[in-house]
Design goal:
Radius of gyration of chain A: 27 Å
Number of strands of chain A: 22
Strand content of chain B: 15-25%
Order of helices and strands of chain B: EHEEEHEHHEHHHH
Number of domains of chain B: 1
Distance between the termini of chain B: 27 Å
Strand order of the largest sheet of chain A: 3-2-4-5-7-6-12
Number of domains of chain A: 4
Oligomer: heterodimer
Number of helices of chain B: 8
CATH class of the largest domain in chain A: Alpha Beta
CATH superfamily of the largest domain in chain A: Thiamin diphosphate (ThDP)-binding fold, Pyr/PP domains
Largest sheet of chain B: 6 strands, mixed
Structural class of chain B: alpha/beta
CATH architecture of the largest domain in chain A: 3-Layer(aba) Sandwich
Chain lengths: 624, 195
């Protein structure tokens, strides 16, 4: 646990996300909240690991941390801490801010008391997301001061100093990161943590109640605040000019991780250029930006996704009558799609600066390689549920799905995902489908998604008597994002005992009349349960409950119990291919006509024993 | 001076752990380092691509044709990222294929290992080793990533001594697994030395 045990001044390697947590601790953060989502998850997980580590040592952490039920709740919990004059942090993935946006938009009107850093982890290229929205628009939309780090070290410092800026402006700040910052590792030099306060005091203030009259008074105050923020931006240590080579009439405006590619490209290409690197990107520093535009005859804007800086400097140049050529997305030099990388940035800059690309020749593989998309793990209980449903559901059944590992059920041969928008959309779209078609509807959501945003659409289904089967795939954890707890688990994010809320109790409380709980690892019984649910006229809920195989095996290893693996009895196997073509466990493969189980991949669930019609699966003898 | 390393393989094979250890070793050796990883959805049996860059660098990502080494825990994953290699690049890969489900149910083809090795050799300098067997012999198949780190150290392309890497490994695994990791690391070194 070097992140809290190493001494100040020491330099250690940290993930961008870990660096953010460290920055908050150095600033004396009191309350941290989240709903997990890649690429933000390790920020919160680091708070959780620290709390549990200290608990083991009978020490109290300097902060309170929670995995909240969703991002909106997370923002409200931490916001209330800020109103009580405590320093607070809320982190989420980019689409999480959509969920939290109702609170966020008005929070900026009200402003905060204790410093509040809100982290939005954007995901250009959609590595683990349903879209690649650029949340810098949220900063502009809500009038929220914003910072964008380029390295883990800067992420730590921006978080630390962000609390001071937040308190100075009495406004929460947005730390906008992207995957290549969140999941980059780099050296970080530690500073001595400030003590946290522990408890604050909520002083009553009529301005905290946003009735229309208050809102009308607060909006002009917010605009004034942004003027002050613009002045701060011109003085921010995170906004700086960097000269590569000699002074010239060429300039580059850049921010975030794009700067890393720009700097190396400019050095490799040996160009003469002035770079304005922005770390505080909302508001952009008016004086520095004007200087860049006035000193150059050409400015190249290098920013991932939307032309946010570019549009602002077009406006600035027009308004101030500055004659400067601006190259970027509007001139088709750069794309609004996907994340950038050294190749993209270097090649575009080489063209603009009329230089040859500095890299040795290389080419992609000429052999067509089989694709390797992510898949449900071998042994995943969701696969067993899907297999069981497929056995009893009519052919045209529609399967609305949701956000989690189980979305991977989209792949053949299961093909158990037909419709997905966002967290909780499975049950909402199920309601709509039930009134729009005569097809059967079986929707899927995970346990954590159920608590996040799955309950209101179930209430809607019951109230309107929609004929749908809503499945909660309860694997006892928030699996996809790294096994975080949720309201259905027995411990909280700090490792303390927590009240476990049973999903079946909640749905019964919502008025669902047909509720069944099944263990998907019993395939036959699970099929029977879904048959009953499909036959029921009205809203039914099946809770398919079995722990994530990765957690189960982790527990087995901790207890010193071996994880069994299985193999195909070649004497009995008739190559009917049920295991491959219908069940689709990725541990199975075919070689020279025979079917085998890859020992590197088998997680030992044993469900193949149930689905093999020839009883040709047996426990593997050799163990390692 | 820049050292650029690609680490690749299949989710669950310890590629991210190896990346982290390599980065920590660089910090211990007082060498500037940036690394990049893929987390989340891509980990579920997907292709994993990580990078480590050391020395006078700003970007954690690598430009095409500029990797000094590609280390892979699976043969076709080494070839999947071969555009990062040039003629001088060393490609160290384990020889045990993990056949993706797209071959079993999607009708895609896993090429023969000879084809894969020929293709890699036409781009770069290939070094193969049965890291899985070396790991099993050391006492735990999950140390396959450590075997490959041993192989990487043996190339002499790291800007620090292999002892620093081995000490960093020891500092990042439970003490009871120290000797297994030691054997795995040295097994990897020996396998590459022979080539």
């Amino acid at each position: 646990m070097e992140i809290i045990e190493e001494k100040p001044e020491k330099t250690i390697l940290l993930l961008g996300n870990e660096a953010i947590t460290r920055g908050a601790i150095e600033a004396g953060v009191d309350v941290a909240t989240t709903y997990p989502g890649t690429p933000s998850s390790e920020i919160a997980d680091t708070f959780s690991h620290i709390a549990k580590y200290l608990k083991k040592k009978n020490k109290k952490p300097s902060f309170y941390f929670q995995y909240s039920t969703n991002e909106k709740v997370a923002l409200e919990v931490a916001g209330a801490a800020s109103f009580s004059k405590l320093r607070s942090l809320t982190c989420m993935k980019h689409v999480g801010l959509n969920v939290a946006s109702d609170a966020f938009m008005t929070y900026l009107y009200v402003g905060c008391k204790g410093g509040h850093v809100i982290i939005s982890a954007d995901d250009p290229s959609c590595h683990s997301s349903q879209n690649e929205q650029d949340n810098r628009y949220f900063a502009l939309f809500a009038s929220c001061p914003m910072f964008e780090p380029t390295t883990p070290e800067e992420a730590k410092e921006m978080t630390r100093i962000g609390f001071d800026v937040s308190e100075e402006l009495k406004s929460p700040i947005l730390l906008r990161t992207t995957t290549r910052l969140n999941h980059a590792r780099g050296p970080v030099t530690l500073k001595k943590p400030k003590p946290s306060k522990g408890k604050g005091f909520f002083e009553k203030d009529p301005d905290l109640v946003t009735v229309p009259a208050t809102a009308r008074k607060k909006h002009p105050e917010l605009l004034e605040k942004m003027k002050k923020a613009a002045a701060l931006s011109d003085k921010s240590p995170f906004n700086e000019f960097i000269q590569i080579g000699k002074k010239s009439k060429m300039g580059i405006l850049t921010s975030g991780v794009a700067y890393n590619y720009v700097k190396e490209a400019a050095e490799e290409l040996k160009v003469d250029v002035t770079i304005l690197k922005l770390g505080m990107t909302h508001p952009i520093p008016p004086k520095m930006t004007k200087k860049l535009l006035s000193d150059c005859d050409t400015v190249v804007v290098v920013e991932e996704l939307e032309p946010i800086l570019e549009n602002q400097i077009h406006t600035m140049a027009d308004e101030q009558g500055i004659d400067v050529k601006i190259l970027g997305k509007s001139t088709d030099h750069f794309s609004r799609l996907y994340e950038y990388n050294p190749d993209i940035v270097t090649n575009v800059l080489a063209k603009i600066f009329d230089k040859k690309t500095p890299f040795p020749k290389s080419k992609e593989s000429q052999i067509k390689l089989p694709s390797r998309p992510p898949a449900l793990c071998p042994g995943c209980p969701h696969r067993a549920t899907y297999y069981a449903v497929k056995k009893v559901a009519p052919k045209d059944t529609v399967y609305p799905t949701d956000i989690g590992c189980y979305t991977l059920g989209k792949a053949p041969p299961l093909e158990m995902a037909d419709l997905l928008l966002c967290m909780g959309s499975n049950a909402g779209t199920a309601c709509g489908l039930s009134i729009s078609t005569d097809q059967k509807i079986v929707s899927y959501m995970g346990d954590s998604t159920f608590f996040h945003s799955g309950i209101p659409p179930i209430v809607n289904a019951v109230h309107h008597n929609h004929d749908v089967v809503i499945t909660v795939l309860d694997n006892r954890t928030t699996a996809m994002t790294g096994h975080q707890p949720h309201p259905g688990t027995e411990t909280d994010g700090m490792g303390n005992p927590a009240r476990r809320i049973l999903i079946e109790d909640v749905v019964k409380g919502c008025g669902v009349e047909h509720v069944e709980v099944v263990n998907p690892n019993n395939v036959t019984r699970t099929s029977e349960a879904f048959k009953r649910a499909l036959d029921f006229k009205g809203t039914s809920v099946v809770v398919s409950k079995a722990p994530c195989i990765l957690l189960k095996n982790r527990d087995r290893r901790k207890e010193g119990k071996p994880v069994p693996t299985f193999e195909v009895d070649q004497e009995k196997c008739t190559q009917c291919n049920t295991c491959l073509d219908k069940f689709g466990c990725p541990a199975f493969y075919k070689k020279d006509g025979s079917v085998y189980i890859d020992e590197q991949q088998c997680n030992g669930c044993g469900n193949c024993l149930q689905i093999c019609p020839e009883k040709a699966i047996k426990v593997r003898k050799e163990e390692n | 001076m820049k050292t650029s390393i690609v680490l690749t393989g299949v989710g669950g094979q310890g590629v991210i752990t190896a990346t982290n250890i390599l980065g920590k070793a660089a910090v211990n050796a007082d060498v500037k380092v940036y690394a990049s990883e893929v987390h989340g959805m891509a980990q579920r049996g997907g292709s994993v691509y990580c990078t480590v860059r050391m020395g006078d660098v700003s970007s954690p990502l690598i430009a095409s044709g500029t990797a000094n080494v590609i280390v892979s825990t699976e043969p076709i994953e080494a070839l999947r990222y071969i555009q990062y290699a040039n003629k001088k690049t060393k490609v160290i890969t384990d020889t045990n294929p993990v056949v993706p489900f797209t071959v079993n149910v999607g009708g895609e083809t896993y090429p023969s290992l000879d084809e894969v090795y020929d293709a890699i050799s036409s781009h770069a300098e290939l070094i193969t080793l049965d890291a899985l067997q070396i790991a099993k012999d050391a006492g735990a198949r999950i140390t396959k990533n450590i075997v490959l780190l041993g192989g990487l150290a043996e190339t002499g392309l790291l800007p620090f001594d292999s002892d620093i890497l081995l000490d960093t490994i020891f500092a990042n695994v439970p003490s009871k697994f120290k000797s297994v990791n030691d054997t795995a690391f040295k097994g990897g070194m020996k396998a590459v030395k022979k080539k």
